[in-house]
Amino acid sequence: EASIEDASWLAGRWVGEGLGGRIEESWAPAAGGQMIGHFQLVRDGKPVFYEIMLLDRQLGGLRLRVKHFNADFTAWEDKGVWHSFEPVSARPDELRFKGLTLSREGEALTIVVTLRDKGSVARDHVIKLRRAPL
């Protein structure tokens, strides 16, 4: 069974390119059995969207829940709703969820997320980030 400590390597600030813009993702160290993170995508100098993320342990492993917000901070999901990435596996440098993988090699973080387009076609998107100072 995975524990939140298995994700401790994720804590910190990560920056890079993906989804057609500049991405920044930051994670706080584990506290109370959870980790909190935030994500932002900026294109042409303007914010596109944000995410607030919660990583916690559930039966079966680590789960990642995400709430999305437009640039004006209006929510995509209703108040009691979030997008959930259910656990698959946790290794020393990789967290795998259904539809999402976070893997680290040194100071590089690769995120592979499966997104559906408007025609409901699923496609993997690769995001490459590097650890950055706060």
Explain how this protein is built.
With about 130 residues, the protein is mainly beta. It has no helices and eleven strands. It has an eleven-stranded antiparallel β-sheet with strand order 6-5-4-3-2-1-11-10-9-8-7, with no helix packed on it. Strand 7 and strand 8 (about 95) form a beta hairpin. The mean pLDDT is about 95.
Low-pLDDT runs? none
Helical stretch count?
0
Strand count, sense and closure of the main sheet? 11 strands, antiparallel
Query: Given the helix and strand composition, which structural class is it?
Result: mainly beta
DSSP, total strands: 11
Q: Which descriptor suits the 3D outline? A: globular
Mean pLDDT value: 95
Rg over alpha carbons: 14 Å
| β-strand amount | over 45%
Structure in a nutshell:
This protein has 134 residues and is an all-beta fold.
Question: How would the blueprint of this fold be written?
Answer:
Layout: E1 12-18, E2 21-27, E3 34-43, E4 46-58, E5 61-70, E6 83-85, E7 87-91, E8 94-97, E9 100-105, E10 108-116, E11 122-132
Antiparallel strand pairs: 1-2, 1-11, 2-3, 3-4, 4-5, 5-6, 7-8, 8-9, 9-10, 10-11
Main attributes of the structure:
about 130 residues
